[in-house]
Design a protein that fits this description.
By secondary structure, this protein is an all-alpha fold. The chain folds into two domains: about 80 residues; about 60 residues, no CATH class. Helix 2 crosses helix 3.
Length: about 150
């Protein structure tokens, strides 16, 4: 009986080893599948990253191009205005428009500090500074004019 029992136990051990071996094979296959899935996920993430970086770069270039075009349009408009009107004409137009300008200002005490820069905006700022100084010197308070409705 000892030989039969030993044979029975040996058979059980062999079967157990087979089960363990199959389980080990399944673990190895699962790890291999996991490694493949991880590599695919990494590759997909890299592709998405490259795609997004390309889109971001295209957006940056488009934004830079748009800003440069706007800057060039502004420069062209400034040259056009500077070529069209003299300093005296700009001052005269601002003086003539002072009542309308004053009627549209919603603040009581107004002081324009835009006359520091060069070019047409600076020229307009200096002209407006002069007009506002003249208006104040003659007792014209822009705040009171702003309370009355603009002339239609």
């Amino acid at each position: 009986m000892f030989a039969g029992d030993l044979e029975h136990r040996t058979c059980k051990c062999v079967k157990a080893f087979d089960v363990v071996a199959k389980a080990d094979e399944e673990v190895v296959r699962a790890r291999a599948q996991l490694a493949v899935a991880e590599r695919e996920a990494d590759a997909q993430a890299r592709r998405a990253e490259v795609t997004l970086e390309g889109e971001l770069e295209r957006a940056r270039v488009a934004l830079h191009t748009e800003a440069e075009e706007a800057r060039l349009r502004l420069a062209a408009q400034e040259r056009e205005v500077a070529g069209r009107y003299s300093d005296a004409e700009i001052r005269m137009r601002v003086v003539q428009s002072l009542p309308e300008i004053a009627s549209r200002i919603q603040l009581g005490d107004v002081r324009w500090y835009g006359g520091e820069s060069g070019g047409p905006p600076g020229l307009l700022g200096r002209a407006l500074d002069e007009v506002l100084d003249v208006a104040r010197a003659h007792g014209l308070e822009l705040g009171r004019l702003a309370e009355s409705p603009p002339a239609e």
